[in-house]
Amino acid sequence: KGDIEWSSKLPKGISIENGMLTVAKDATPMATVLTATANDILGSARLRIVPRVPYSDDFEDVVLKPHKTEPNIKSAAPRPYWIGANKKWEVRELDGSQVLARTLDYPLFQRTITMIGDPRQANYTMTVDVRTDGNRRTMSAGGMINQRYLIVLKGNHQALEITSNEELIKERVPFRWKAGTWYRLKSRVDTNPDGSGVVRAKAWQRDLPEPDAWTIEVEVPRANLGGSPGLYGFTPQSRFRVYLDNITVTAN
Asked: Which residues share a beta bridge with 138?
């Protein structure tokens, strides 16, 4: 045994005493690598801190820099504590606001699922604003993951869809939407004592009042009891971007 020496300054909100790592409730969400030495032995561990429920993100605090391949555009990387986001999403300016945009530089990344929270999170309501480039015939798709259920606005199908392992659950209802317009998507999962549940979602044009009724409700015999909030984007043939903004996660 020997004294442990940390090779770098610990991030704000994190402390280590007597071998115990403590994260403060107000610690800044982040992803980093902690390195330490003891008796000439070097070790490292990855550390990921995600926000507690409730939280929201509108990306207005992100500092944009000149884009690597588009000199007239400023952009920034997505949140470092998100999983599966790097090179697939970027923050850009759109109509005077900073939003999350799907990248088009990597054709292999046409379909993207990005987890933004903790897999133990449950019983939350999630909202996200969705917008796609394109035209009447070709659009992209965008949405969210709520307790391992995918809730997505599908442009080419003009539908709102809920799936979970498509061979088990795949339900959709018609929803007419158009490119260049923001829509708000909202979802929640309610579970029953017998293990069954209901996945609910609604969508509406963002500048209009929220409808009272859910657009789609899917009953499931065995509901997922938890799962990380997540984001979804699909850009067929990497032609048209899909944008997300104003993410909120609140307790039911």
From this structure: none
Q: What one-letter code names the amino acid at 224? A: N
Residues above pLDDT 90, as percent of the chain: 73
Instruction: Give the integer Cα–Cα distance in Å for 131 and 50.
Output: 26
DSSP for 51-118 reads: PPSSEEE--TTPPPEE-SS-TT-EEE---TTSBS-TTTEEEEEETTEEEEEE--S-GGGSEEEEE-S-
> In this structure, how many other beta carbons lie within 10 angstroms of the beta carbon of residue 219?
12
Between the CA of residue 210 and those of 15, 218, 246, what are the distances in Å? 43, 20, 15
Quote the pLDDT of residue 69. 81
Q: Which two tokens stand for residue 111?
A: 């379909």
The burial class, CB within 10 Å (0-12 / 13-18 / 19+), for 237 is exposed
Q: How many CB atoms are closer than 10 A to CB 191?
A: 19
How far apart are alpha carbons 183 and 99 in whole angstroms?
A: 14
In the predicted model, is pLDDT for residue 2 greater than 60? no
